[in-house]
Specification:
Elements: H1 2-26, E1 31-34, E2 37-43, E3 46-54, E4 71-76, E5 81-82, E6 93-94, E7 99-108, E8 112-119, E9 128-133
Antiparallel strand pairs: 1-9, 2-8, 3-7, 3-9, 4-5, 4-8, 6-7
């Protein structure tokens, strides 16, 4: 019986770690840029997910939304725009200090440098764009 309780306890701790620590860290694995921005970053080969982040306070039953005027544009090193497709309809993640909303996903065959231009309207608390594991 105690073995079952121990296994259940380990499973609960592992789930908590994955959902609230590991997963949140992976969302910004490749970079976190304060908005507004106009910078160049290097992204690795593979699937990269782009997230919107802010420090707005939302009630527990409210779904976080992207700030007014949020725009993000990626350009390949040669200057041509890079299409991220339609914005993702993913589940927002609320942490104790930030809201993170999946915005787009890109698949890269090889590492590449991108110019990132991001805009946001006035009055948004701590806006940023994150690049993380897909």
């Amino acid at each position: 019986m105690w073995v079952l309780v121990a296994v259940l306890g380990v499973a609960i701790v592992a789930t908590f770690y994955y959902m609230f620590i590991y997963r949140v860290q992976q969302m910004a694995r490749y970079g976190r840029l304060q908005l507004p921005c106009d910078v160049t970053i290097e992204l690795p080969a593979g699937e990269v997910t782009v997230y919107y982040e802010d420090g707005e306070r939302w009630k527990h039953n409210q779904r976080p939304e992207m700030g007014p005027g949020f725009q993000i544009r990626l350009s390949a090193e040669g200057g041509e725009p890079f299409d991220m497709g339609e914005p993702l309809d993913g589940t927002p993640v609320k942490t104790s200090r930030h809201n993170r909303i999946p915005y787009g996903r890109i698949e890269l065959q090889r590492p590449a440098r991108f110019r990132v231009r991001g805009e946001i309207g006035p009055g948004v608390h701590e806006p940023a764009v994150l690049f993380g594991r897909g």
